[in-house]
Amino acid sequence: MYVGRFAPSPTGLLHIGSLLTAVASYLDARSRHGRWLVRMEDLDPPREMPGASTAILSTLEAFALHWDGEVVYQSKRHHLYAAALAQLRAHELVYPCYCSRKTVQAEAQGMGVDGVIYSGRCASLGADTHLCTNKTPAWRLRVGAELICFQDAIQGWQQQYLAGDVGDFVLLRADGFWAYQLAVVVDDAAQGVNHVVRGQDLLVSTPRQIYLQQLLGLPQLNYAHLPLLTNTLGQKWSKQTQAPALDLRKREALLRQVLVYLGLPQAPQVDSMADLLGWAVQHWQLGRVSRQAIVTV
Ligand code: GLU
Protein backbone atom coordinates (compact mmCIF):
# COMPACT_ATOMS: atom_id res chain seq x y z
CA MET A 1 0.00 0.00 0.00
CA TYR A 2 1.11 3.53 -0.81
CA VAL A 3 2.15 5.44 2.34
CA GLY A 4 3.03 9.11 1.93
CA ARG A 5 3.62 11.89 4.40
CA PHE A 6 3.98 15.62 5.00
CA ALA A 7 6.79 16.46 7.41
CA PRO A 8 6.86 20.15 8.32
CA SER A 9 9.41 21.71 10.67
CA PRO A 10 7.61 23.96 13.15
CA THR A 11 10.01 26.86 12.60
CA GLY A 12 7.21 29.07 11.30
CA LEU A 13 3.67 29.03 9.94
CA LEU A 14 2.77 27.37 6.66
CA HIS A 15 3.26 29.56 3.59
CA ILE A 16 2.44 29.05 -0.07
CA GLY A 17 5.54 26.85 -0.63
CA SER A 18 4.74 24.51 2.23
CA LEU A 19 1.07 24.41 1.20
CA LEU A 20 2.20 23.25 -2.25
CA THR A 21 4.12 20.37 -0.64
CA ALA A 22 1.26 19.43 1.66
CA VAL A 23 -1.30 19.44 -1.17
CA ALA A 24 0.90 17.55 -3.67
CA SER A 25 1.85 14.83 -1.17
CA TYR A 26 -1.80 14.52 -0.13
CA LEU A 27 -3.10 14.28 -3.72
CA ASP A 28 -0.46 11.77 -4.75
CA ALA A 29 -1.30 9.54 -1.77
CA ARG A 30 -5.07 9.82 -2.02
CA SER A 31 -5.19 9.36 -5.80
CA ARG A 32 -3.39 6.04 -5.24
CA HIS A 33 -5.72 5.05 -2.39
CA GLY A 34 -2.83 5.45 -0.01
CA ARG A 35 -2.35 6.63 3.53
CA TRP A 36 -1.15 10.17 4.21
CA LEU A 37 0.71 10.83 7.47
CA VAL A 38 1.81 14.02 9.17
CA ARG A 39 5.09 14.14 11.09
CA MET A 40 6.26 17.18 13.01
CA GLU A 41 10.02 17.57 12.56
CA ASP A 42 10.63 19.37 15.85
CA LEU A 43 14.26 18.42 16.40
CA ASP A 44 15.81 21.86 16.65
CA PRO A 45 14.08 23.76 19.47
CA PRO A 46 16.19 26.94 19.14
CA ARG A 47 14.88 27.37 15.57
CA GLU A 48 11.27 26.61 16.45
CA MET A 49 8.44 29.09 16.82
CA PRO A 50 6.22 28.61 19.89
CA GLY A 51 2.77 27.46 18.84
CA ALA A 52 3.79 26.67 15.25
CA SER A 53 2.98 22.92 15.46
CA THR A 54 -0.58 23.56 16.58
CA ALA A 55 -1.04 26.33 14.02
CA ILE A 56 0.28 24.10 11.20
CA LEU A 57 -2.14 21.33 12.12
CA SER A 58 -5.13 23.63 12.28
CA THR A 59 -4.14 25.16 8.92
CA LEU A 60 -4.03 21.68 7.36
CA GLU A 61 -7.51 21.03 8.76
CA ALA A 62 -8.78 24.34 7.39
CA PHE A 63 -7.67 23.14 3.94
CA ALA A 64 -9.47 19.81 4.52
CA LEU A 65 -6.08 18.06 4.39
CA HIS A 66 -7.03 15.31 6.84
CA TRP A 67 -4.25 12.93 7.80
CA ASP A 68 -4.35 9.28 8.86
CA GLY A 69 -3.45 8.14 12.36
CA GLU A 70 -1.73 10.17 15.05
CA VAL A 71 0.68 12.98 14.30
CA VAL A 72 4.21 11.84 15.09
CA TYR A 73 6.60 14.26 16.86
CA GLN A 74 10.30 13.71 16.27
CA SER A 75 11.11 15.27 19.65
CA LYS A 76 9.64 12.13 21.26
CA ARG A 77 11.65 9.66 19.18
CA HIS A 78 15.26 10.21 20.24
CA HIS A 79 15.56 6.55 21.27
CA LEU A 80 14.98 5.45 17.66
CA TYR A 81 17.72 7.75 16.33
CA ALA A 82 20.08 6.59 19.10
CA ALA A 83 19.46 2.95 18.11
CA ALA A 84 20.27 3.71 14.46
CA LEU A 85 23.47 5.51 15.46
CA ALA A 86 24.45 2.56 17.66
CA GLN A 87 23.93 0.24 14.69
CA LEU A 88 26.23 2.38 12.55
CA ARG A 89 28.78 2.60 15.37
CA ALA A 90 28.84 -1.16 15.71
CA HIS A 91 29.98 -1.31 12.08
CA GLU A 92 32.50 1.53 12.50
CA LEU A 93 30.68 3.61 9.94
CA VAL A 94 30.67 6.70 12.13
CA TYR A 95 33.35 8.52 14.11
CA PRO A 96 33.35 11.18 16.81
CA CYS A 97 34.28 14.65 15.56
CA TYR A 98 35.61 17.37 17.85
CA CYS A 99 36.09 20.06 15.23
CA SER A 100 34.52 23.43 15.89
CA ARG A 101 32.47 25.08 13.17
CA LYS A 102 35.46 27.43 12.66
CA THR A 103 37.87 24.52 12.08
CA VAL A 104 35.43 22.82 9.72
CA GLN A 105 35.22 26.03 7.68
CA ALA A 106 38.94 26.80 7.80
CA GLU A 107 40.09 23.32 6.77
CA ALA A 108 37.29 22.60 4.29
CA GLN A 109 38.10 20.55 1.22
CA GLY A 110 36.17 23.06 -0.88
CA MET A 111 32.55 23.78 -1.41
CA GLY A 112 30.10 20.90 -1.88
CA VAL A 113 26.51 20.87 -3.05
CA ASP A 114 25.26 21.63 0.46
CA GLY A 115 27.93 23.60 2.28
CA VAL A 116 31.63 22.96 2.80
CA ILE A 117 33.20 19.51 2.55
CA TYR A 118 34.68 18.29 5.82
CA SER A 119 38.45 17.80 5.80
CA GLY A 120 38.36 14.43 7.52
CA ARG A 121 40.54 15.65 10.41
CA CYS A 122 38.81 13.34 12.94
CA ALA A 123 38.13 10.48 10.50
CA SER A 124 40.81 8.23 11.95
CA LEU A 125 39.61 8.61 15.55
CA GLY A 126 38.29 5.41 17.04
CA ALA A 127 34.64 5.22 18.00
CA ASP A 128 35.63 5.12 21.70
CA THR A 129 37.85 8.22 21.71
CA HIS A 130 35.08 10.21 23.33
CA LEU A 131 35.43 8.04 26.43
CA CYS A 132 38.94 9.46 27.00
CA THR A 133 38.01 13.13 26.84
CA ASN A 134 35.45 15.17 28.68
CA LYS A 135 34.32 16.80 25.47
CA THR A 136 31.09 15.85 23.73
CA PRO A 137 31.72 15.13 20.06
CA ALA A 138 29.49 15.32 17.05
CA TRP A 139 29.11 12.00 15.20
CA ARG A 140 29.89 11.91 11.51
CA LEU A 141 29.09 9.28 8.95
CA ARG A 142 32.05 8.14 6.86
CA VAL A 143 31.18 8.24 3.17
CA GLY A 144 33.04 6.29 0.56
CA ALA A 145 33.67 6.89 -3.09
CA GLU A 146 30.26 5.55 -4.08
CA LEU A 147 28.04 7.18 -6.63
CA ILE A 148 24.42 7.28 -5.50
CA CYS A 149 21.88 7.25 -8.34
CA PHE A 150 18.10 7.36 -8.35
CA GLN A 151 15.17 8.25 -10.54
CA ASP A 152 13.10 11.14 -9.27
CA ALA A 153 9.48 11.02 -10.44
CA ILE A 154 9.50 14.74 -11.31
CA GLN A 155 13.13 15.81 -11.64
CA GLY A 156 14.34 12.74 -13.54
CA TRP A 157 17.62 10.88 -13.18
CA GLN A 158 19.87 12.06 -10.35
CA GLN A 159 23.37 11.17 -9.29
CA GLN A 160 25.79 12.33 -6.65
CA TYR A 161 29.26 11.35 -5.46
CA LEU A 162 28.94 11.53 -1.70
CA ALA A 163 32.66 11.95 -1.07
CA GLY A 164 33.22 14.66 -3.68
CA ASP A 165 29.88 16.45 -3.43
CA VAL A 166 29.04 16.27 0.28
CA GLY A 167 31.79 14.67 2.40
CA ASP A 168 31.45 12.96 5.78
CA PHE A 169 28.28 14.39 7.32
CA VAL A 170 26.98 14.88 10.84
CA LEU A 171 24.28 12.59 12.27
CA LEU A 172 24.33 13.83 15.86
CA ARG A 173 25.47 17.35 16.62
CA ALA A 174 27.83 18.11 19.51
CA ASP A 175 25.02 20.11 21.15
CA GLY A 176 22.97 16.90 21.35
CA PHE A 177 20.54 17.60 18.51
CA TRP A 178 19.90 14.90 15.93
CA ALA A 179 20.53 15.78 12.32
CA TYR A 180 17.61 15.87 9.90
CA GLN A 181 19.28 13.32 7.58
CA LEU A 182 19.28 10.54 10.16
CA ALA A 183 15.90 11.30 11.73
CA VAL A 184 14.07 11.45 8.40
CA VAL A 185 15.45 8.08 7.27
CA VAL A 186 14.67 6.37 10.58
CA ASP A 187 11.15 7.79 10.78
CA ASP A 188 10.16 7.20 7.17
CA ALA A 189 11.14 3.56 7.61
CA ALA A 190 9.54 3.18 11.06
CA GLN A 191 6.27 4.65 9.77
CA GLY A 192 6.24 2.46 6.66
CA VAL A 193 6.47 5.47 4.33
CA ASN A 194 7.30 4.39 0.79
CA HIS A 195 6.63 7.58 -1.22
CA VAL A 196 8.12 10.98 -0.51
CA VAL A 197 6.79 14.07 -2.28
CA ARG A 198 8.58 17.22 -1.09
CA GLY A 199 10.28 20.44 -2.15
CA GLN A 200 13.15 20.57 -4.58
CA ASP A 201 15.43 22.13 -1.98
CA LEU A 202 15.70 18.64 -0.43
CA LEU A 203 16.76 16.93 -3.67
CA VAL A 204 20.39 17.48 -2.71
CA SER A 205 19.83 15.59 0.56
CA THR A 206 18.24 12.53 -1.00
CA PRO A 207 21.48 10.67 -1.90
CA ARG A 208 22.60 10.95 1.74
CA GLN A 209 19.27 9.49 2.81
CA ILE A 210 19.49 6.65 0.28
CA TYR A 211 23.02 5.89 1.50
CA LEU A 212 21.80 5.74 5.11
CA GLN A 213 18.94 3.46 4.06
CA GLN A 214 21.51 1.14 2.47
CA LEU A 215 23.74 1.11 5.56
CA LEU A 216 20.83 0.55 7.95
CA GLY A 217 19.29 -2.17 5.77
CA LEU A 218 16.13 -0.13 5.14
CA PRO A 219 14.11 -0.08 1.91
CA GLN A 220 14.75 2.69 -0.58
CA LEU A 221 11.79 5.04 -1.06
CA ASN A 222 10.21 6.52 -4.18
CA TYR A 223 10.98 10.21 -4.46
CA ALA A 224 9.30 13.10 -6.23
CA HIS A 225 10.73 16.59 -5.72
CA LEU A 226 8.37 19.44 -6.50
CA PRO A 227 9.39 22.62 -8.28
CA LEU A 228 10.36 25.48 -6.01
CA LEU A 229 8.00 28.39 -5.63
CA THR A 230 9.93 31.63 -5.70
CA ASN A 231 9.17 35.30 -5.29
CA THR A 232 9.76 37.66 -8.21
CA LEU A 233 13.44 37.94 -7.19
CA GLY A 234 13.83 34.21 -7.80
CA GLN A 235 14.20 33.47 -4.06
CA LYS A 236 12.58 30.42 -2.52
CA TRP A 237 9.68 31.32 -0.26
CA SER A 238 10.79 30.75 3.31
CA LYS A 239 10.92 32.49 6.64
CA GLN A 240 14.15 34.20 5.53
CA THR A 241 12.50 35.64 2.42
CA GLN A 242 9.52 36.71 4.53
CA ALA A 243 6.98 34.35 3.04
CA PRO A 244 3.59 35.61 4.23
CA ALA A 245 1.60 33.19 6.40
CA LEU A 246 -1.47 31.81 4.62
CA ASP A 247 -4.56 33.97 5.02
CA LEU A 248 -7.22 31.40 5.83
CA ARG A 249 -10.01 33.76 4.76
CA LYS A 250 -8.65 33.29 1.23
CA ARG A 251 -8.14 29.56 1.51
CA GLU A 252 -10.25 28.57 -1.46
CA ALA A 253 -8.40 31.00 -3.75
CA LEU A 254 -5.06 29.79 -2.33
CA LEU A 255 -5.91 26.17 -2.90
CA ARG A 256 -7.06 26.90 -6.46
CA GLN A 257 -3.78 28.72 -7.09
CA VAL A 258 -1.74 25.79 -5.77
CA LEU A 259 -3.69 23.34 -7.95
CA VAL A 260 -2.80 25.42 -11.02
CA TYR A 261 0.88 25.46 -9.97
CA LEU A 262 0.66 21.67 -9.81
CA GLY A 263 -0.52 21.42 -13.41
CA LEU A 264 -4.20 20.68 -12.76
CA PRO A 265 -6.85 22.15 -15.05
CA GLN A 266 -9.09 24.96 -13.80
CA ALA A 267 -11.31 23.54 -11.06
CA PRO A 268 -15.11 23.90 -11.27
CA GLN A 269 -17.24 25.74 -8.70
CA VAL A 270 -17.57 23.66 -5.53
CA ASP A 271 -19.42 23.90 -2.24
CA SER A 272 -16.55 23.21 0.13
CA MET A 273 -12.79 22.83 0.48
CA ALA A 274 -13.30 19.08 0.84
CA ASP A 275 -15.11 19.01 -2.53
CA LEU A 276 -12.34 21.01 -4.18
CA LEU A 277 -9.71 18.60 -2.85
CA GLY A 278 -11.87 15.63 -3.85
CA TRP A 279 -12.05 17.01 -7.41
CA ALA A 280 -8.24 17.47 -7.37
CA VAL A 281 -7.70 13.86 -6.25
CA GLN A 282 -9.71 12.71 -9.30
CA HIS A 283 -7.70 14.88 -11.70
CA TRP A 284 -4.20 14.55 -10.18
CA GLN A 285 -1.37 13.51 -12.49
CA LEU A 286 2.15 13.62 -11.13
CA GLY A 287 3.45 13.68 -14.70
CA ARG A 288 1.91 17.13 -15.23
CA VAL A 289 3.93 18.78 -12.47
CA SER A 290 6.62 21.04 -13.92
CA ARG A 291 10.32 20.65 -13.09
CA GLN A 292 10.98 24.34 -13.38
CA ALA A 293 10.75 26.78 -10.50
CA ILE A 294 7.44 28.66 -10.46
CA VAL A 295 7.41 32.38 -9.84
CA THR A 296 4.43 33.31 -7.71
CA VAL A 297 2.70 36.64 -7.91
N1 GLU B 1 11.07 18.99 7.72
C1 GLU B 1 11.56 19.28 6.40
C2 GLU B 1 11.19 20.68 6.00
O1 GLU B 1 10.22 21.22 6.54
C3 GLU B 1 11.01 18.36 5.35
C4 GLU B 1 11.53 17.01 5.45
C5 GLU B 1 11.14 16.06 4.35
O2 GLU B 1 10.07 16.22 3.74
O3 GLU B 1 11.89 15.13 4.13
O4 GLU B 1 11.85 21.25 5.16
From TrEMBL:
Keywords: Aminoacyl-tRNA synthetase, ATP-binding, Ligase, Metal-binding, Nucleotide-binding, Protein biosynthesis, Zinc
Taxonomy, superkingdom: Bacteria
GO MF, one example: zinc ion binding
Segment forming the signal sequence: none
Chain span(s) of sequence motif 'KMSKS' region: 236-240
One GO term of the biological process aspect: tRNA modification
Binding site for ATP: 239
Binding site residues for L-glutamate: 5-9, 41, 180, 198
Cofactor needs: Zn(2+)
GO cellular component: cytosol
Note accompanying the cofactor annotation: Binds 1 zinc ion per subunit.
Motif 'HIGH' region, chain ranges: 8-18
UniProt-listed PANTHER family: GLUTAMATE--TRNA LIGASE, GLUTAMYL-Q TRNA(ASP) SYNTHETASE
Function: Catalyzes the tRNA-independent activation of glutamate in presence of ATP and the subsequent transfer of glutamate onto a tRNA(Asp). Glutamate is transferred on the 2-amino-5-(4,5-dihydroxy-2-cyclopenten-1-yl) moiety of the queuosine in the wobble position of the QUC anticodon.
Record NCBIfam families: PRK05710.1-3 (NF004314), PRK05710.1-4 (NF004315), queuosine_YadB (TIGR03838)
UniProt family annotation: Belongs to the class-I aminoacyl-tRNA synthetase family. GluQ subfamily.
Protein's name in the database: Glutamyl-Q tRNA(Asp) synthetase
Organism: Snodgrassella alvi
